[in-house]
Specification:
The chain is an alpha/beta fold and 272 residues long. It has helices at 29-46, 72-86, 97-104, 120-128, 146-155, 181-186, 216-225, 255-269, and strands spanning 18-22, 50-53, 90-93, 109-112, 132-136, 161-165, 168-169, 175-176, 191-194, 200-201, 210-211, 230-236, 250-251. It has one domain (3-269): Aldolase class I (TIM Barrel, Alpha-Beta Barrel). It contains eight helices and 13 strands.
Length: 272
């Protein structure tokens, strides 16, 4: 899929990977604008095609008292404000069929969560909006199985599909990334590596998902070396106090050095 089909996306001729990055969830307008401003400055400097990421609501929570959002309409308006302020495209996840049409009025990419990627009606509803559909590979699915998810998008009249690898369940409380799946999924659609969710440690007794942010650069480097089309990184200026997925997010202060290193690796990979 041609990245230039996405409104407002920049640096598409740089031969870099593209980037989906931002906080796990929209916690408010000020935090979203603060994070977006920093990432836009970095990606412009490094010439990385960039899409701001933020969930307008969180439906998959371990506990009933976990943060789910600031209100659907309010959060979607924040995503629109980010797009208008910084002239960048945006992506958010959807969980119900009715979310597709609603979110499509505000964002450029609709993301199907990993646990829901086999839900045919949801995938079809997203595809019919005409937006790019980012299909996150289920933790329980093989890379080969994602061909069928992509086919659902195409059979709905759209060629705008991405696949995102986000790790495979390894036991009850860990995930692993099988990099053999990257070339397999690239046959079906542009493929993104979700670096931070791949480092989650789910099913903790506390009811709060853990993570290994110390391994972010290790996984990201391996993804770039193995020619992923894009990277997905959740980042926050205060991960410890983030309202969702703080345990596996990258601190915003570390993003520029990480991306600089990855761009250098990408330039080397491009020579082969």
């Amino acid at each position: 899929m041609d990245l230039n089909l996405i409104p407002k996306i920049k640096h598409t001729n740089s031969n870099n990977f593209f980037l989906l990055a931002g906080p796990c969830a929209i916690e408010g307008e000020d935090m979203a604008l603060k994070i977006a401003e920093k990432i836009v400055a970095i990606t412009d400097r490094l010439e990385i095609p960039y899409v701001f990421k933020g969930s307008f609501k969180k439906a998959n929570r371990s506990r009933i008292d976990s943060f789910t959002g600031i209100g659907d309409d309010k959060a979607l308006k924040v995503l629109r404000k980010v797009s208008e302020t910084f002239d960048v495209p945006t992506v958010t996840d959807i969980h119900e069929i009715s979310d597709a049409e609603k979110a499509a009025e505000y964002v450029d990419v609709l993301q199907i969560p990993a646990f829901l990627v086999r839900q045919t009606d949801l995938v079809v509803a997203a595809a019919k909006t005409g937006k790019v559909v980012n299909l996150k590979k289920g933790q329980f699915m093989s890379p080969e199985a994602m061909e069928h998810a992509v086919r659902k998008v195409k059979d709905s009249g759209s060629e705008k599909a991405w696949i995102t690898e986000r790790g495979t369940m390894f036991g009850y409380q860990d995930l692993l990334v099988d990099f053999r799946g990257i070339p397999t999924m690239k046959k079906f659609a542009p493929t993104v590596l979700d670096v931070t969710h791949s480092l989650q440690q789910p099913n903790q007794s506390s009811g709060v998902t853990g993570g290994r942010p110390d391994m972010i650069e290790t996984i990201a480097r391996a993804g770039v070396v193995n020619n992923v089309d894009g990277l997905f990184i959740e980042t926050h200026f205060d991960p410890t106090n983030a309202k969702s997925d703080g345990a596996n997010m990258l601190h915003l202060d570390y993003l520029e050095q990480l991306l600089s290193n990855l761009v250098a690796i990408k330039k080397l990979v491009n020579t082969f």
